[in-house]
Description:
By secondary structure, the protein is an alpha+beta fold. It has 2 domains: 10-166, Band 7 domain (Tetrahydropterin Synthase, Chain A, 2-Layer Sandwich), CATH 3.30.479.30; 237-331. The protein is 57% helix and 18% strand. It has helices spanning 50-55, 98-104, 110-125, 133-145, 168-235, 239-248, 253-262, 264-280, 286-303, 309-331; strands at residues 10-16, 27-28, 31-37, 58-64, 68-77, 84-95, 149-151, 155-166. The strands form 2 sheets. Strands 1-4-3-2 form a 4-stranded antiparallel sheet, with helices on one face. It has a 4-stranded antiparallel sheet with strand order 5-6-8-7. Strand 5 (68-77) and strand 6 form a beta hairpin. The longest helix has 68 residues, at 168-235. It is rod-shaped, with a radius of gyration of 58 Å. 17% of the residues are buried. The mean pLDDT is 76. This is SPFH domain/Band 7 family protein.
Amino acid sequence: xxGQPSFDPIIRETLTPVLSFGTEPTSRGNVVIVYxxxxxxxxxxxVPSFGTRLRTAIWQYxxxxxxxxxxxxxxxxAKEEAFFFTVMVALVWxxxxxxxxxxxGVRDVKPIIWGTLDPVLRAVSRQHSxxxxxxxxxxxxxxxxxxxxxIKYGLRMVFLSVNVRPDSAxxxxxxxxxxxxxxxxxxRDEHRLQMLREGHVHELNELSGRLERARADHEIALxxxxxxxxxxxxRGDNYDFVVLQLIxxxxxxxxxVEMLNSGKExxxxxxxxxxxxxxxxxxxxxxxxxxxxEDAINQLRxxxxxxxxxxxxxxxxxxxxxxxKERIIKDV
Length: 332
């Protein structure tokens, strides 16, 4: 309310001349004329008689009876005593009883309007927190509906509306609190996300471990199956199948050599036949045969290290024969 302009409903106040004659008007457009005799007599709309004018002074008041829209701004406390609402009131007032207005001596309607609205709006504002400004505004509108109409001192409230929002300090507090709330939610969301990521990584590691174990078991089963195949093929002298299988699975060569070594009497012949078939079939080149040749010869030497010198000579000759065959194949 501080700083609001004053609103005087009386346009002009004059002393009526004693020797004025004729009929004085009682109204003029939106102006209502009220007369008042000296001695604090009751004001009246009718023109005093000539005799009355001779006996006492007559005051003439020109009262504005038009509708006057005015804005008002009130700072009202919220439920939290430390914060306030800024309440902007738009109202239209008018003089409903000019005689009563003059009798009461009102020269500024602002305190009257403020005294009427402030208690009503203040009682509502104290019931709401600063974040509930929307509900506070709705409740103030309901409360002001009862105040529309005639009020004291010959005044009337023609129209009332309000707009409520937190003041600047409350808005800063709300912004900071909302920022803190969002930061907390973001931190909780990030924590949940991190937990989900860690759980997902743990599940992936478990699945990867299971997959590796399954692959290892499957590989062992395949190797066992191939070992049975090699064992059966070697017992039945099916060397061609052995050679084809070894080309597809060179990692099985050492195992097959060990199988050949297990039967020392037939080891040399079988090893020679396998290696010779691999070379003749052009299934491997000389470079591929280097590890197989050296491993087979080494295994052969180990298996037959208790054999006679003549047998070792035969092995060396066979080695030279294999090397020569590899050279021929390479040249071709």
